[in-house]
Design brief:
Layout lengths: L11 E2 L13 H8 L2 E5 L5 E5 L2 H8 L4 E2 L26 H14 L2 H25 L3 E2 H6 L1 H11 L6 H11 L7 H24 L5 H12 L4 H14 L2 H16 L1 H9 L4 H11 L10 E3 L3 E3 L2 E3 L4 E4 L1 H4 L34 H18 L4 E2 L21 E3 L1
Parallel strand pairs: 1-2, 3-9
Antiparallel strand pairs: 2-3, 4-6, 5-11, 6-9, 7-8, 10-11
Helix pairs in contact: 4-6, 4-15, 7-8, 8-9, 8-10, 11-12, 11-15, 12-15, 13-15
Bound molecules: protoporphyrin IX containing FE.
Length: about 400
């Protein structure tokens, strides 16, 4: 089959097609086989190199010469209207980024997250109690997928869960690809910082046993965090900590219910849940198209192509995670896949610091659902589900289920 977008050596318009569900345009498989490093015209800022193979993406994401900082504050070729800025963690100079990463990573070590598990389970079960008490059909996004990671990250940071309606509005703007203009997103970012400033001031006056107070202490005592860094880290964790996991959780349940033999298998074999979560992370794309762009700080050779200094590089994690050279039966969902080197959380210096937390939440939710609701099923046909459009992350608007 020849891909309609694939004319070797030409510039293709990106993104391919307009898929917002869990599918991937066939162009990715074609490009992996024929032209894995390809020139694309991005929706904003001009042309970039798109990488589609697992090996090239792993190499590129760990290569310091491909820099997010060099892509910040510029009209760089990109997927979203608003470019990364150097105030955000991702866009910081490498040395500042590494310093802040150490602080963030300390909050999410495997040991700390293991200690949080009982609380995550408590929140999950109380949400499932409410779901059951309300009766089916019910929307699993509203009842579990969104409130679980939101409640957990709010509790960790010390931001009231009751504020969720306020920061959801900011999240929607800041995670927009094209739903809002660059100016609208910029305005939302300023308002979000003002909102967070209020909590920082409160905790400064009355420290509590939460992450926000710990970050303030790191700032006040060690001169480690500037006011802006504090706001940016808190804001990044609040949004990063719930939006991505919520989208993934609803989609994971959808993949299990679309073919109920998968769900039934987990009900019968709960010990498979950790492996199943890895497989679901592999097959459920995070980004609608690609994540943040990198810019080459010097000439870099990738997949036989020389990316010149100053050129932009983007990559598809979803394509990497379906690379037939790495995954046998790459398009199948194998809940007990033994070797699963997916890169759903990225790689290298920007590897997701929240991965242990996200894994704990996803596993706990699937254990609770399969343990308590073995009859769970979709309340509408899968092809009638609605997906968010024009956003950076793929996610369901609602997931109606019954049991
Ligand atoms: C299933 C859920 C999640 C997925 C699939 C995910 C995925 C990712 C990916 C792919 C990146 C790297 C982007 C790149 O290199 O281009 C990333 C970065 C990041 N994630 Fe996550 N994430 C998830 C949950 C979380 C959670 C729960 C938190 C916070 C509690 C979080 C906070 C962050 C932050 C702060 C970064 C930026 C890291 C940096 O630039 O050094 N994420 N995430």
């Amino acid at each position: 089959m020849t891909c309609p977008h694939a004319v070797a050596g030409s510039v293709r318009t990106y993104p391919f097609g307009d898929r917002v569900d869990l599918g991937l345009d066939p162009a990715y498989a074609e490009l992996r086989a024929t032209e894995p490093v390809v020139r694309v015209a991005m929706p904003y800022g001009g042309e970039a190199w798109l990488l589609t193979r697992h090996a090239d993406i792993k190499k590129a994401t760990t290569d310091p010469r491909l820099s997010m900082h060099a892509a910040a504050d510029r009209d760089v070729p990109r997927a979203a209207a608003r470019a990364l800025d150097s105030v955000g963690l991702m866009g910081m100079p490498a040395a500042d980024h590494a310093r802040l990463r150490r602080l963030v990573s300390r909050a999410f070590t495997a040991r700390r997250v293991a200690a949080l598990r009982p609380r995550i389970a408590e929140i999950t079960h109380s949400l499932v109690d409410d779901l059951v008490a309300g009766g089916g059909p019910a929307d699993l996004v509203e009842k579990l997928a969104l409130p679980l990671p939101t409640a957990v990250i709010c509790e960790m940071l010390g931001i009231p869960h009751a504020d969720r309606h306020i920061f959801r509005t900011f999240t929607e703007a800041l995670m927009s690809a094209s739903r809002y203009t660059e100016e609208q997103v910029g305005k939302a970012a300023e308002e979000y910082a003002d909102y967070l400033r209020g909590y920082v001031a409160q905790r400064r006056a009355r420290p509590e046993d939460d992450l926000l107070s710990a970050l303030i202490e790191a700032h006040d005592e060690g001169e480690q965090l500037s006011e802006n860094e504090l706001l940016m880290l808190t804001g990044g964790m609040l949004i990063g900590g719930h939006e991505t996991t919520a989208g993934q959780l609803a989609s994971h349940v959808l993949v299990l219910l679309e073919d109920r033999t998968r769900y039934e298998r987990l009900c019968a074999h709960p010990e498979l849940v950790p492996r199943a979560v890895e497989e679901l992370l592999r097959v459920v794309p995070l980004w609608s198209s690609v994540g943040p762009s990198r810019v080459a700080t010097e000439d870099v050779k990738i997949g036989g192509v020389t990316v010149r200094a100053g050129e932009a590089v983007v990559y598809s994690l979803a394509s990497a995670n379906r690379d037939e050279d790495v995954f046998t039966d790459a398009t199948d969902v194998l809940l007990d896949r033994e070797t699963n080197p997916h890169i759903a959380f990225g790689q290298g210096p920007h590897y997701c610091p929240g991965a242990p937390l996200a894994r704990a939440e996803l596993q706990t939710a699937l254990e609770a659902l399969t343990g308590r609701l073995p009859g769970l099923r979709l309340a509408v046909p899968a092809d009638e589900l609605t997906w968010h459009r024009e956003m950076l992350v793929r996610s369901l608007v609602t997931l109606p289920v019954t049991w």
